[in-house]
Amino acid sequence: MTSTAQVAGDTERASAFDVDRIRRDFPILAQTVHGKRLAYLDNAATAQKPQSVLDVMERYYREDNANIHRGVHLLSERATAAYEAARAKVQHFINARHSREIIFTRSSTESINLVAQTFGRQRIGHGDEVVISAMEHHSNIVPWQMICEEKGARLRVVPITDAGELRLGEYERLLGPRTKLVAITHMSNALGTVTPARQIVEIAHQRGAPVLFDGSQAAYHMTIDVQALDCDFYAITGHKLYGPTGIGVLYGKSEHLESMPPYQGGGDMISAVTFEKTTYNTPPYKFEAGTPNICGVIGLGAAVDYITAVGLDEVAAHERELLRYGTDALHEVRGLRIIGTSPHKASILSFVMKDIHPHDIGTILDQEGVAIRTGHHCAMPVMERFGIPATARASLAMYNTREDIDALVSALRRVEEVFG
Ligand SMILES: *Cc1c(COP(=O)(O)O)cnc(C)c1O
After folding, report:
1. Which fold has domain 53-309?
2. Which residues does a 6 A CB cutoff place in the pocket of ligand 1?
3. By the 8 A CB rule, do 419 and 359 touch?
4. Coil, strand, or helix at residue 237?
5. Known active-site residue 231
6. Per residue in 337-373, pLDDT tens?
């Protein structure tokens, strides 16, 4: 493996992390778009899937497809075993204490809505407060606005600095006896900022407020340990974690899940139903009404296996090196300004170029084979904070290389030429 890095002659770390080998596991990357080599730099929107995930999902439908939990036949037993094995994989991936603390949802959006509509609805009353931050994705704003509106409660927003960091002093001041929940991102999708999660929890818990983290971004860039964080809830979305779409995870501390009301009613979430009274199943099943996305769960389990085999710490080191390389390279582009400059950031290069609309940047880059995202990134308040309508955003994953960054920079030179 070291020899591959030496042959490549440069750039990649000469360690067990072999990016060329990793790239071969992602068949979608080996294509051209508009006749150019694909540089896929839109990972914060969704990541590509390794062959092992594709294989597991195909094999499930070909060989094991059956409904789970209630079947007595062999296929159902196999499907159930694979589904529950994936739950254990996710449990170990984020170091949850119990597998019953892992609930499968549709996405992190649904995970957050689940907490808002159950835990939130139960706890938040008139005049209470929910604390979020100014760098949240809409998925971690709107569900709280909805429940606050319903209950006559108030949303409090922790401001951020010009670098895109949480103002911790302000955060501390915002917390009070009326704070019923803190819901903050572990990593911003618009800025790349990694928030001081452990401190956020410590400060909130001192005041008796539980904490939910939106881990949609963090979970595929760094090792997550929910016990070390001591957070109360943690939301993950599968498709950014190299898994399929339509599957998400909600981690919740057992003691909360026990006392929370169910989210949706239906099959599987009950233990007995009569017209007079229904008794609910225990967690996690209480929160998984109806036939779940069985194949999606199994695919997510395969994605977790894949990431674990590569090693998330190695991935983080690789991405850190690329982020530094990319940041330096972007500084060389005339009129370009990076939005989100915290030293505590990961894998995201959000930027604007003087007098050029991000949408035009994205369109020209696409012609050069470079896939990025432009717009408000479902974080309109972040754009407002920086006084801009949109940014162009390149975002990294484990399979990206210096070649991708070089393609980005040379495509930006093309943008300069066109608009220069
Ligand atoms: C992508 C993302 C979400 C929403 O994820 P879905 O898969 O659309 O539910 C929420 N928060 C952050 C920070 C994200 O990056």
Report:
1. Aspartate Aminotransferase; domain 2 (3.40.640)
2. 44, 107-109, 137, 139-140, 185, 189, 214, 216-217, 237, 239-240
3. no
4. strand
5. no
6. 999 999 999 999 999 999 999 999 999 999 999 999 9
